[in-house]
Amino acid sequence: MMSLNKVTLEQVVKNQFNYKLGAYSGVFISLIILQLIAVLFSLNGVGMSGGGSEQISYSLHYYSGNLVFIFTMLWVFIVSIIITSKAYRNEDFSFVSNRLSSDLSNILFMIFISVIGTVTALLSTFLIKVILLFLPKFDMFYYSSISMNMSNFVFLGIVIAFCYILIGAAAGYFVGTLVRLSSLFKIMVPVVFVGYLIFGGMISEVSGLATVVQFFYLESSLITFVLKTTCTVMALFASSVAIFNRMEVRQ
Amino acid sequence: MILNTDGTKPIYVQIAEWLETEILNGNFLQDQKVYSQYQLAEIFNINPATAAKGLTLLVEDDVLYKKRGLGMFVTEAAQAIILTKRREHTLKRLVTELVSEAEQLNVGMDELLEMVRKESKQSKGE
Amino acid sequence: MKVVNCEGLVKKYGRSKALNDLSFQISENKITGLIGRNGAGKTTLLKIMAGFQKQTSGEIKVFNEHPYNSLFASANSILVDDQMAFPIALNLGEVLEAAASFYPKWDGRLARRLFDYFSFRNNQRHSELSKGMKSTFNIIVGLASRCSLTMFDEPTTGMDASVRKDFYRALLKDYIANPRTIIISSHHLEEMEDLLEDILLLKDGEKILHLTVSDLKEYAIGVKGNANALLEWLDDKEVLYKKEIGTSVIYAVIENVYSEKIRQDASKFGFELLPVSSNDICIYLTGKEKGGIDDVFK
């Protein structure tokens, strides 16, 4: 009787995650490029105001790190869609895998890139500040923060940013999986989405998307926010896993 | 030896006959171990199961005997058995074919015997 | 233990049945050839055994487990075909490393030596390789994985003759050294016939035959003789193939039942008996009813 290999889900997921770190490493290059572009655009400023009196005049230039953050969210959304594509999925099955392990290792990977994305987004905002510091045309800098305590702000910022980015990842993964279910969805999803954006405002006072965004954006308590995020992300991932579980591969 | 793959003779039969020839030529002596099915498989580039079938054939004909866990060995009577087999079956069959072919080509008995004698002289002379 | 246990397997794509009530078993450590025409269902069967696709109905068990989504089945089986793909970001050397991490029985030394023998370079990418080289690399992964169930679907696509020979030789040698259950589906039966122990012949998703190669060779016999006499004699026989040679001679292939009687009849009526190659037997058994290619030119 030949010896048969015994493997646990844990081992396989770990193996897959490790090899995906190498195999999917190309995504980080696009991340850096996107963020640099965002930094560049951010240097344009988001607003300006000015004023003066007889003795002095002043102008205020506003800068924000929001663009970097939005670009990062977009990037993670797209990467998530890409890793659910046929080609990427099939690669898992060249080795030891089942659908659950493929999903779990992908999810781990997305959490990983969300972390990396958040950290580099934060660093990019610092980069903006540093560049502005060295530009000769400014005399003074003011940082606006939610609370006066620097460390608190940074922490809150990172956690919140990470939550948004993770939602972006889960949403992308779900969309990517859904689309593979039937090619019908490839057309339906963008159409419904765009249609809702445009016409949603006509149907109800506030468009559907705005409600969704407000659900997160207006949340004032950090804990509730994290809870909402976690539930949403888990629901999206769970649905994706359930859908993929019934799909055939390598056809 | 190259295997004849045109289908006239099953592979396992060719393996068996090759082993018989080896025994006849003294390459395997009495009570000596012959190649295992795996060694035969490697030598002739065939599936071990096919080689095993050839070995089984020889065991049935009492040319080889099996020692459990050790392999196949040449029996005492192997040489005698093979010679008889060759004479009875192979040579006889060749004679039958020869005669029938000669008839088809209208070659008379005397002419045929003359051809046989000539061939024998030639091969002895070489 | 039966490595593969298949009962009443049906696979439908829309309305068409790729597999139709297929039942068979494959025992441990045999090399089985999966033979059949294009569209016979060979690839579908292999993909279901590998767990990539799911059957419509019927039972299939690989190592006593349902292969779909089974990590155990996946860890102990591998399907090598031309769709075997690897991440573009990894080069060949890295792919071999990844494979080693997944398969506990991976034979790194064999992989490395085959790799060098076929002149691959570490820094090449799988997607850059020619079709034949891709096939060659895939079988290196397949062989070195030492999976207890190793399946090949047309593994020699695009390979030149000498590489094909090397593949069969390498497969045989590693099989002798490390026995495992092997299933090869191929169009080139005549090339790999000696390598096989069993043949599973499929037609239109159904099992036609499942027997040893030696039994297959004795399954049918060719008879050649005078048209009138032969046609009459063929009346009560199972004829697999018939062809006219010249004006009055017919060549037919029949099932070799009561072979002794056939031999007697042949010498009585002056028919010539000819052996039929396994390849031809398979062709005749899986043929369409519409007549031969010659009819196109009539």
TrEMBL record, chain B:
Domain HTH gntR-type: 9-77
InterPro entries with a match to the protein in the record: Tscrpt_reg_HTH_GntR (IPR000524), WH-like_DNA-bd_sf (IPR036388), WH_DNA-bd_sf (IPR036390)
UniProt keyword list: DNA-binding, Transcription, Transcription regulation
Name recorded for this polypeptide: GntR family transcriptional regulator
Annotated source species: Sutcliffiella horikoshii
